[in-house]
Structures are given as C-alpha cells and as structure tokens.
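Objective 1b. Sequence-to-structure analysis of NIPSNAP family containing protein.
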Amino acid sequence: MNQIFKRTRAFFLLAAVLWTAFFGVAQATPFDSGMKGLVIEYKVAPANRPALYAYMREQGLDQLEQWKREGKLKNYKVLFGRYADSPVWDMMTMLDFADVAQAARWKEIERTMPAGLGPQALALVTSVETNPVDQWFEGGKSTSNGVYLVIPYDYLVSTEKYVSYVEGYLLPQVNGWLQDGALSHYNFYIGRYAVSRHWSSLLVLEYNGDEGIGQREKLTARVRAKLAGSDPVWEGWSKDKSAIRNTRQYILADELRKP
C-alpha cells in the first residue's frame, strides 16, 4: 500500500511540475514589484497659468530632458490643461522609470526641487498632488499633433476584478477607436496607495488632432454598437460598470513641447 501511495504522490508531483512548465504560474502584474511611475498634478491661480506655461517651455522641459539623459528617469510627458478650470489641475507630468531602483532615486530630486520644479515655478503653484502609479496597458503610437483627454476613475471593487473589467469592457472599445484612426495612442494607469485620493486609475487618451477628438461621441457610439452585437463578455461588463467604478471630471489638454 505504501508503494502505491508513493507512486501516486510522485505522479501528481510530476504532473504539477509539468503543468507549471507548460502553462506557467499566475500571470505577473505590475504589483509584483515596486511602482515605476509617478503622475504629478499642479494647480495654479488662473492669473499664473501663462507664467507656468512659459517656465516649462523655457526651463522645465530642458530640466526633464537633462534628467532623462542622466538616467534619472526613463521618459516623461507634460500635459497642460486647455482651459482654466478650478476643480482640476492646470498641468500634469507623467514620469516613467526604467526600474524600481530608478524610481526610488526620484526622492533625491524632490529634496531640492519639489515635484520637479525650480523655485520660480514653485512660487506660482498653489497645490501639488503626486500619485505613485503603474502602467498596466498601453497601445497605439503617439503623434506630434495629439489632443489629450484625461479620464480619472475611482474603482469600487478589488484590483483583480477591476483589471478584468478593464480588459473585458474598456480595452475592446479603446482598440476599436485605435483601429478607426481617430485615436492614436493611450495609456492606462492604476495608482498605488490610492485611499482618499480623488482617483485610483487614470486613462490618458491621445486623439489624432482636434478632428480626431471631435469624432469621439460618434465613434464611441459606433464601436459600442458593434461590440454589443458581437462580444458577450463586453455586454456582460457593460451592465455592471456603475457598480465597478465612478468616473471623475474629464480634462482636455495639450502636450507641452519645446518650440
């Protein structure tokens, strides 16, 4: 009997090893290591918007580019809100780091240049919110004439369920917009330590110019109608979405680039 037990146990152990070899373990996610991104939002008085804009064009972008050359960050993008709008930010900077160690070293910059700004710009800013994030999804290709729509969400379920919702409901729509050509690129972030913050995930949509974003409503309706007739998983999530996330105020913005 012991021999039978040992052989049976050995069989199942071998089967487990083979299963892992062929099918792998649970899929890795960004949460398996430390965060590798920051989203920094800056608010200024309406009268100071032109001065902040000028500072970034004349000094701020050069400083970010220098840090990139020095290996202090992997990439960056700076968006400036198209309109003065008190409830939301005026400028947002998205920082991507090559690895966890590089991200951790950002604290050294914060000690002398809080939020990555010099004294001249800090004097203009009334508030800063810094959100540690992970990029979960990205698609398309960024262009030189992008018009951005930034959509913050606060999700109400576990992160695992929320990611399933994003994969089953949000991404099929976004990919449809990309295929149409009106949308050129997107990033989707999930925040770390999001308790009490005004958003816990962020969708950054880059449209193909003002003409592209002008087609948003019509395109959204067209893609949803197509999915409703062909994707039962998408249909299932569409009935449930109000219990999964709250949508915050959309922000229309343009990318700040050197002249």
